[in-house]
Design goal:
- The chain is α+β, with helices and mostly antiparallel strands.
- It has helices spanning 97-106, 112-119, 123-140, 180-189, 205-214, 224-244, 248-252, 257-262, 270-282, 284-299, 305-317, 324-336, 338-342, 351-367, 373-382, 429-438, and strands spanning 9-16, 20-27, 43-58, 61-74, 80-82, 89-90, 95-96, 148-156, 158-165, 170-175, 198-201, 219-222, 387-390, 423-428.
- The protein folds into three domains: 9-138, no CATH class; 224-345; 382-438, no CATH class.
- The strands form three sheets. The chain has a seven-stranded mixed β-sheet, with helices on both faces. Strands 1, 2, 3, 4 and 5 form a five-stranded mixed β-sheet that branches. It has a two-stranded antiparallel sheet with strand order 6-7.
- Helix 5 (205-214) links the parallel strand 11 and strand 12 (219-222).
- Helix 4 packs parallel to helix 5 and helix 14 (351-367) packs parallel to helix 16.
- It binds zinc ion.
Length: 441
Amino acid sequence: MDILNLVNFNIIQTAENEHDFQIKVETNSPPSHCPHCGCVANLYRHDNKEHLCMDLPIHGKRVGLLIKRQRYRCKDCTQTFWERIDHTIDEKRNCTKRLLAYIEKQSLKRTFTSISEDVGLNEKTIRNIFRDYINRHEETVRFETPNWLGIDEIHIIKPRCVLTNIEERTLLDVLPNRNKDTVVGYLSRLPNKGRIQYVTMDMWQPYKDAVRAVLPKAIIIVDKFHVVRMANQALETIRKQLRESLSVKERRGLMHDRFILLKRHKELTEMDKITLDLWTKNHPSLGIAYDLKESYFDIWDSDTRQKAFLKYHDWKAKIPKELQSAFEPLTKAMANWEQEIFAYFDHRITNAYTESLNSLIRVVNRLGRGYSFDALRAKILFTEGIQKERRPKYQRRIDKYEMEENFPMFKMPPVIRELEEVALLGVDISTLTEKLEKGEL
Ligand SMILES: [Zn+2]
């Protein structure tokens, strides 16, 4: 075994400097026939040229293969041809196939510049290899269109649109932005899009417009999570306004206020309750705001849409004038998205889904920084082993099985087997989050 371990090449000469190896090689299997006429024996060496291809780094040095490539002439048809090197070399990218595979894997983890420095191909070539790699996956990986689609937001450098299968708790795609056109494009290209019955989304108008345009029959639902957090935001606004109007000494009396105010009533400790009562005595509006937040959350415990609707309107009427502006983002959203928000009571999403999506969003927000959008998207969607599958149902019909040849009693004429394929359901959100968190992706 030589330093290269490439079975189709013999080393003629090796040279080395501080940064690089240059290894001169030639193929060790002359052509068996003429590619033009197919004749077997009458081939003669014509001329040769040197062809530089990059290979995997060795001992931290870049490796260039100087291939002495032979041209042949066929005596029968008089045509010439170059000997084949495509068993080992990718001629489009001028590198060995194994280097190409290495670059593909690395391109999901590292910057193109650092790979370029490492292997000796220019950055543009690395980018093209990455692009081809992604396109290849793009063509082969097809996730099943869900019955219940989720459309949300995830931050990778800037806000991006993320699509999920809610029932399977899988991720289907991440789009470069949240524009209507982008989402329309995605939805239009989905196979069997008629099967989408429900779409859960956050309150972003272009999402609604896109779904209305492409999936007019689908029912749009806003997840409770997106709505109730607006009540926390309103309370937060009021808390900050109050703090600004206080002296340093008064402010000290409000230690850990944010932490306590965000708690649900049932989560308050005895000590928290005493503190909250004291604050309410000194700053009545803070107490009212806390109670409004709590009673707003309670609306979501209603068992029917109608009860929730009535409770909401009672609740809204109780907001005192001085707190109305802080609650305005919430009340406005309730007015603009009324239909979709109350649809939640007919089509509830499980907390497990919301929680797993939220933890993915948090992890990506934190880790997303070092990567380009395309690289992070590819890493998320195309890493093997995190895609969820569904095997076809057990087949009753015997002709859908492959016959065991050594069982003569099963000898039958060949049958056309129409086996269902394994359905790819998307990337399992929990597994993905876990792997991202552990740095395994
Ligand atoms: Zn020939």
